[in-house]
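Hey, can you fold this one?
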Amino acid sequence: MKITILTLFPEIFHSFLNVSIINRALKKEKIKINLVNIRDFSTDKHKKVDDSPVSGGAGMIMQCQPIYDAIKTTCFDSYKILLSPRGKIFNQKEARKLSKKKNISIICGHYEGVDERINKYVDSILSAGDFILTGGEVAAMIIIDSIVRLINGVINKKSLINESFNDNLLEYPQYTKPYNFNGLKVPKILYCGNQKIIDKYHRKEQLRITKKYRPDLFSKVKLAPDDICLLKELKEHKNKISSWEKQAIKKAVKH
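Sure. Predicted structure:
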């Protein structure tokens, strides 16, 4: 995948591109990143890229000409994304969709915003969330990170199976050694040795956590018959465990 980033501050991305999974994807040649400085395309002798809003108002607005020429020169044939508060909220579904594209470009706004006419030259308008950032650079990093990790060959496929937001559920709790940390213990059922029971327990925890912390997501979950049974258990037993969990705990390896 080729990703072109149009920004006034390309230096912001240098550390981001040289660490962790993004850097690994670059080394494996799974992605190619092209940083484009919008200021390079300004026709103003001082490389000015902004101006005051017509009819007055606070702040400065990024002008059409430098952005349009940057698009036309570097990424006209790509799938073009403008980052803006008015855009559709970016989520995992959108990340999966974008990860299948071969060539995308992301336009980072700055100052008070971007001249409205630039909207005519993009394919999508996205927002990282209902909050205001100084510029689109941080939002671009969020989107790139979430897309790149989904590209085939970047990370182990097994790591993607039960992640948060798959099927609108949050991920189940994860633990590692030691068994007992400051009196906080790993659930014994995870040592039962029966993967089907463990999977059932994980599913129950996903349902419990999503319902508790993200009812907005939970309302979108397509519940299978087994899920309905697990939810009934959660309602009836509350903080207690069910009979099948008790049986599994009895068989758990001692720690």
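Residues 166-250 form a domain with the Trp Operon Repressor; Chain A fold (CATH 1.10.1270.20). Let me know if you want another pass with a different chain boundary.
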